[in-house]
Amino acid sequence: MKKISFSLILKISGIVFLAFAVVLGNEIRLGIDRYIKNTLETDAEVTVRNLDKFAKSYIETVAVNKVDITSDAFQSIYSSALSGDNTKIKCLVDSQGKIVSTSREGVSSPTLCIFADEYYGSQSWPLYFNLTSLPKKDLNSIENFLIEHQKEVGNISIEVKLDHQPEEGEASFNDIQVKNLVYNDEIIYTGDVKGKTQTFQGTVSAYTSYNKEIVFFSSASGTMKIQKQTEKQDSSKEFEEKQSALVVDYQNAMNGLQYQIQRNFKKFKSSGKEFHSAGNDYSNYYLLSPYEYNGKYYSTVMMRLEDWSLLVDANQSLDYTTEESLDLLSAGYIFVTQEYTDLTMKSLQQFMVDNSSTYFLAFILIILICLSIAYMIVRPIRRIETTAKHIARKEFDYPIGMTRHDELGDLARSIDIMSKELEKTISNLHQEIERVTQLEGVRKDFVSNFTHEIKTPLGIINGFSELVELEQDEKKRNEYIDIIQNEAKRINELVLAMLDLSKLESQNISLTMEDVDLLDIVDESLDSMAYLLEKKNIHLNAELDSATIHADHFKIEMVINNFISNALRYTEDGKSVYVHLDEHCFEVENEGAQIPNDEVEKIWLTFHKVDKARNEEGTGLGLAICKAILDLHHFEYGVKNTDKGVLFYFKF
């Protein structure tokens, strides 16, 4: 049974899913934007309907005269006609951008609500106390105290001075002065109030102000009693469960709106577009660009308060499409802001719910596509794998033979080509093994030659050392000793040359690279061999140009000296030697006997002698050392027979 390459299928599926996720992510982002836009516009319609009611009263009672947004007439309709969702923040701004007032819609003053223990014979009767008379600092202190004790059942006692005796059923107390406020026997406020006071007791139900809204569940509904049935018995068990108060803080909403108006008034009021909704007949409204403040999201509707008395010239024409013209008629502005919590997440959830069936079908489709793509890719890969296993067993008669014209087809054809090349390489390797076997014979010849080279001087030293012991003639003894020293010197030179060659061939030697002028080296070499030229009456023909290379001066000098000395050594008396140097090549050619063709490549081997009779001098390692030096420098070199004789060269 064939193994299925699940890992590859998973990888392909992962890539396709990743591409799908990118596309889906972009679609979800656009969908969220649409849902957010729809949410903001829907809420804006509710706000505009409430503003339009205010706009009707404003036009009928105020705008017929010169508009003063601080007048009692305007403030009366502003506070009463504008009603609706009390979670929205409204801000009244004059024409210059100065904030006149900021409050919550439907909330006119800080109010404490308690359930009175007894009020005209009724129990748990809700009473509302207007705390406007309290200083702002004390109000903040009371708010913070209530929040700190939000899990407690708050028994509260409030002693107040009333402006009139309450009638039966009256629940709201507006014009009051608070003398004492006690919470669970703890005094949280004391005021300097003179005159007759009245005390009300009960449990705290709620506290409402411009900034905060606190609803005490435990106090409002009393102690919650929950009956819990057990599995083993029918008896019920009562227990108390205390709930925290619901605390809603509108401080960020107010501060954020004030920040936008105070810092960016002109930019803020012109950031949106005119908003049209069914039934808004009395004014123009604008849905401004949403903004973020302290991690919350806010959307704002703006209404212009038009004052036609600002139009001095009755014949003056205005372009109502430009903001500058509209500003000339604006007595002020009303901004209504609504706060949103987790708007993006809620929009995402709604978007996914609405489109779940579409994405489920897309998910199924993408799985089928992944499996199809994986099959189309995995099947030819399995064929390639089978052929690769045959190649690993050195079986080259199993080509893939794929005819696909894509990347996998190219890969299959490349593997077929590789198989043929590998077969050829293995064949060449066998031939190389045969060549190495031949080199083994050369190595044996080397050992034999080295033994022969060192055997002769050792024999001479041994023979003459015996003669030194027997000879009585001092003069002959000294001659024998000189011969022994010369042969010892020859052995030393041979050993040193062998050591140099070994280091060079193992590349266990560092080159001192520098800029070298070959012309200086060639001149010095020719000068040092002038005596040999005169001795053998050799004619020197030199064509020398300056040539600077980056090389090891000492080792390149060894190569040049060896090439020239070899040329002079194998040149007959009265013949010529030709030395050529240019910026690319150094050549030495001598007139004389040519090297047999089958010996040309062997001439670089150690102790190899083309004509053993002519090689009595030297160690037989010179050209081998030259070869190693030139290999280290990566220079091209060689030897060839010419019409005149033999030419040695190296190029750089």
Structure description:
The chain has 652 residues and is an alpha+beta fold. It is built from 14 helices and 25 strands. The protein has helices at residues 6-61, 72-80, 136-148, 217-221, 251-269, 323-328, 343-354, 356-392, 407-470, 474-506, 518-528, 530-535, 553-569, 622-633; strands at residues 89-94, 99-104, 111-116, 125-130, 155-162, 172-173, 176-183, 186-190, 198-208, 212-215, 224-225, 240-241, 246-249, 273-275, 285-287, 291-293, 296-306, 330-340, 513-517, 539-544, 548-552, 576-581, 585-591, 636-641, 645-651. Strands 3, 4, 5, 6, 7, 8, 9, 10 and 13 form a nine-stranded mixed sheet that branches. Strands 1, 2, 14, 15, 16, 17 and 18 form a seven-stranded antiparallel sheet that branches. A five-stranded mixed sheet has the order 20-22-23-25-24, with helices on one face. A hairpin with an 8-residue loop joins β3 and β4 (125-130). α8 packs parallel to α9 (407-470) and α13 (553-569) packs antiparallel against α14 (622-633). The longest helix has 64 residues, at 407-470. It is elongated. Residues 220-241 and 612-616 have low confidence and may be disordered.
